[in-house]
Amino acid sequence: FNTELELRREAPFGITLLAGYTGLRYSDTTSTTLQDQDRTNIGMRFRFNINPVLQGTLTARHETFEENGTPGTRETTSLDGSLRQSLQTGSFGLNANVTSVEEGERYTLSVSRGIEGPLWQATGTFGVTQSTSGDSFPSGTLDYRRDFQNSAMSFNLTHAIRSGIDDTEREFTAAQFGYTRPLDRDSSLSFNATYSETNPTAAGLGTTSLGTLGLGYQRELAPGWRMNMGLNRRVSTNTAGDTARDNSLSLSVRRDLTARR
Fold first, then answer.
1. pLDDT of residue 41
2. What is the DSSP letter of 131?
3. What is the pTM of this model?
4. Which of 47, 102, 114, 136 matches a 20 to 30 Å C-alpha distance to 215?
5. Buried b (16+ CB within 10 A) or exposed e, 63-88
6. 52-61: average pLDDT
């Protein structure tokens, strides 16, 4: 679960409190590589409305990671800063990130540009990341969204250096396609397809490829309440030739609360 508490939403200076927990459990498996995991995170985000078209944010997070069979707890601390300038045709931004893990520090600097049309939006982020080993990698994202009369389509390309599900630093490349169509006033159906490759920055570890197909159903249960259901099929392969397949069913309910003084 993840939760956020946003304070001073209408003020020039705002604060958001962040907290989350993720647990991963396996059953009826004989593989020694599939271990139960627990991940918790807390953080704070500060928002600064410098003027009507310029906004700055600063986010600090602390995360812990535990894996069954691995002694000790891994800790990650990160600091993100950004400046976003609104333009007549979109936006322009500057972004910086510092992440501290057990192996060292990871730094990322990037610039972003967003362009908007009557029925479409496109955003590109381009930067460079210095890994914990001191090597530099290009990083960036490209997002495109197109609205139609009764549906919407989205496409994303990502290349980044980040921590994987096992908390090891990885070079991550992915392409994602999404399609959403309303069923009625309160519900919609979505489809998504994703292909990704992860390559650990540490020597001696192989590449993993992952393909995912998913169907989703979203429904507004009541004012402020939203339900999401998802069915996903995943196929994963690695350089050793091992292949894993799994199906997952997810259910989430989101509640937005607004308190005014």
1. 92
2. -
3. 0.76
4. 114
5. bebbbeeeeeebebebebebebeeee
6. 95
